[in-house]
Specification:
The protein is of the alpha+beta class. The protein has 1 helix and 6 strands; from the N terminus they run E-E-E-E-E-E-H. The protein has one domain.
C-alpha cells in the first residue's frame, strides 16, 4: 500500500498552490477550467463541475520528454485552448 501526500493552499480567488510528495504546482483558473504549471510540466484542463466529465492536455515539452520538437497541429490547438481558458479566467476574475 502506497502512502500519498497532497496539500492545497488557496492563495487568491482562482489561484491555488498544490504541494505533494514529488513536487509542487500552481493552478490558475475558476472551478471547471484552468492552467497548471508544476514540476511535471504544464497542463490545460476543462471540466463540467459535478459531473466527472473533463479534459486535460499537456502543454509544451519538457527537456526530458522524448518527443519531436517540431510544432504539430495538436500542440497548436492545445495552445489555443490554453489561451481560451486564460481569457475565460480573466473574464471571470474581472
Amino acid at each position: 500500500m502506497a502512502i500519498r501526500f497532497r496539500k492545497s493552499f488557496k492563495l487568491a480567488p482562482g489561484l491555488r498552490l498544490n504541494v505533494g510528495k514529488k513536487g509542487a504546482s500552481l493552478r490558475v483558473g475558476p472551478k471547471g477550467a484552468g492552467y497548471t504549471v508544476g514540476t511535471s510540466g504544464q497542463r490545460v484542463s476543462a471540466s463540467i463541475p459535478g459531473t466527472g466529465v473533463g479534459f486535460t492536455s499537456k502543454v509544451g515539452n519538457r527537456k526530458s520528454d522524448n518527443q519531436n520538437t517540431n510544432a504539430s497541429l495538436g500542440s497548436w490547438v492545445t495552445g489555443l485552448v490554453g489561451i481560451f481558458l486564460i481569457c475565460v479566467f480573466l473574464n471571470w476574475l474581472f
